[in-house]
Write a structure and sequence with these properties.
By secondary structure, the chain is of the alpha/beta class. It has helices at about 10-15, 45-60, 70-80, 95-100, 110-115, 130-135, 155-160, 160-170, 185-195, 220-230, 260-270, 285-290, 305-310, 370-375, 380-390, 410-415, 420-435, 450-465, 470-490, 490-500, and strands at about 30-35, 60-65, 90, 135, 140, 140-145, 150-155, 205-210, 295-300, 320-325, 330-335, 340, 350, 360, 440. It has 20 helices and 15 strands. It has a five-stranded mixed beta sheet with strand order 2-1-3-14-6. It has a four-stranded mixed beta sheet with strand order 8-9-7-10. Helix 2 (about 45-60) packs across helix 14 (about 370-375), helix 10 crosses helix 11 and helix 18 packs antiparallel against helix 19.
């Protein structure tokens, strides 16, 4: 690579098209879109890193088309609806599938994978909740890359410090749990540490929880992950009452304003008060840096944070950065019984919250094989491991070869050699394994208009966070707007797509 990094692979892993003297795509030019970020940006960075390698192997040329997050989806859909084939591939968020796959806009890749001609990777390395995001009704469309899900990061040193543990028990009457198992415990701990100068790096007061809440960015994901255990009625299968979160699967009535969702937003409003006031306008990087500088006890976010904790140029907390799967609420709304259920020992609720950004090929591309060969090159095992080891790539872990034994194939010494603190990486990978294999999961929304549904949710959540609307008002407005979107797109069409997306059989 340009910086001197060497990633080892094998001739067999690269596929039969690549090799000495072979330039299988000489003269071909492909264009792939990605969220703007530049050569060192999340998700965009790896495309820049592997472009010269692919161009040397293939003889082709790759155009990386960076688009602002707010414009990427719109420009992709315009190209697909017109059928122009201006772009050969897209680094999509999995929540775009409902708009692109049922309409025939995405190229299925199972046959390309089976030829053995291209760089080799497999869906078999993905836990089922992730695999579903790369496929549609069992057919493969996405090429392995990212594995999004949110976990809880916390300061191992502070929560185990006898001084703070004694003070916490004196105030709250119970032992400070490490890690906390319920959101209610997280709130108690966050309130306890808020305003105290427990961080030695500067004389200013520190925080409990830091969040990224800027409207138009990715703040609504915080609500999704936190509210899941308040709003999901757990059960053995998906039916009208159990394991549903977004809509009633019998008629597409929004559930987003259910009592469980409202209670969760009220809780989030309390939790965000334990962080810096400015976080209402913070994007991902600003919130992450606050935690990495040692200014907050907690942040819950994506896998990038665990890797960035190891970056000495950005982090002051390597060796102190613990992780666990998200806690659950001590109370949840039961849709069937229509009442709250109290449970002081709640079961875990996993999530695939986020984009799980990965490559999809346009059905209108004139260079399908060339496009696939580039995306597949970035999906081979050694590249996937390199991506997850480097936090700046924005590519998060979730595949079997990235987890430590006995859950996976990875070796602790390899992570330590790559610069990880041993305790940090053990917590980190266990948190993600537990998250992606949890018995109850937050269903992922993949229906036509998901981007619009979420945009409305995001704006109303922001109004609640700023104090303009109450939690009930914000989610009530969201539900009414969602009804209008569903009616405009077609309720029967949406119901069919929603049932397929969440695995509802009726």
């Amino acid at each position: 690579m340009a910086d001197g990094t060497v990633i080892k692979t094998s001739r067999g892993e690269l596929g039969s098209l690549f090799g000495p003297g072979k330039k299988p795509f000489a003269g071909k030019e492909i264009s792939i879109t990605v969220n703007s970020g530049g050569p060192k940006g999340g998700i965009s960075g790896p495309l820049h890193s592997f472009r010269p390698i692919w161009e040397e192997l293939s003889g082709g040329k790759l155009n990386i088309v960076e688009l602002p997050f707010g414009e990427h989806y719109t420009k992709m859909m315009l190209d697909l609806r017109l059928g122009t084939g201006q772009y050969d591939g897209f680094m999509v968020g999995a929540f775009w599938y409902g708009d692109i796959v049922p309409s025939g806009y995405a190229f299925p890749i199972d046959d390309l994978m089976a030829t053995g001609e291209h760089p080799k990777w497999s869906y078999a390395s993905m836990p089922p909740p992730l695999r579903r995001l790369y496929q549609w009704q069992g057919v493969g469309y996405g090429v392995l890359n990212d594995a999004d899900g949110q976990v809880l990061y916390y300061r191992r040193d502070m929560l185990n410090d006898p001084k703070w543990r004694t003070g916490f028990k004196r105030k709250y009457g119970y032992e400070l749990p490490v890690p906390p198992k319920t959101w209610q415990q997280v709130l108690d701990i966050s309130r306890f540490f808020k305003g105290k100068n427990w961080d030695a790096n500067d004389p200013k007061p520190d925080s409990g929880m830091v969040l990224h809440l800027k409207v138009g960015e990715q703040g609504h994901y915080h609500f999704q992950s936190l509210s899941a255990s308040f709003a999901i009625t757990p059960g053995k299968k998906v039916d009208r009452y159990h394991n549903v979160y977004w809509f009633d699967p019998t008629d597409m009535t929004p559930l987003i304003d259910s009592p469980g969702h409202v209670k969760a937003l009220e809780f989030l409003l309390d939790l965000h008060k334990t962080g810096p006031a400015a976080q209402v306008g913070w994007s991902l990087g600003e919130a992450w840096d606050y935690f990495l500088r040692g200014k907050a006890i907690f942040v819950y976010s994506w896998g990038d944070v665990g890797a960035l904790c190891q970056d000495a140029l950005r982090s002051k907390i390597q060796g102190k950065c613990a992780a666990a799967m998200l806690p659950s609420s001590e109370t949840y709304w039961d849709y069937e019984k229509k009442k709250f259920i109290d449970n002081k020992n709640p079961g875990p609720v996993g999530n695939t919250t986020g984009g799980t950004w990965h490559g999809v090929i346009s059905a209108f591309s004139a260079n399908v094989e060339a496009t696939y060969s580039f995306l597949a090159l970035m999906a081979i095992k050694p590249v996937s491991i390199w991506n997850a080891n480097n936090g700046w790539t924005g590519v998060d872990p979730g595949f079997t070869y990235q987890f430590l034994a006995p859950e996976g194939e990875a070796k602790l010494e390899d992570y330590v050699k790559a610069g990880w603190d041993a305790a940090d990486v053990k917590d980190y990978l266990k948190a993600y394994y537990d998250n992606f294999t949890a018995p109850t999961m937050l269903a992922y929304l993949r229906i036509p208009g998901t981007f619009e549904y979420w945009d409305i949710l995001d704006k109303n959540l922001s109004a609640a966070m700023s104090g303009t609307l109450s939690a009930r008002e914000a989610l009530g407005r969201t539900a009414r707007s969602w009804q209008q979107i569903t009616d405009r797109i077609g309720r029967a069409k949406q119901l069919k797509a929603y049932r397929a997306a969440i695995g509802y059989k009726g």
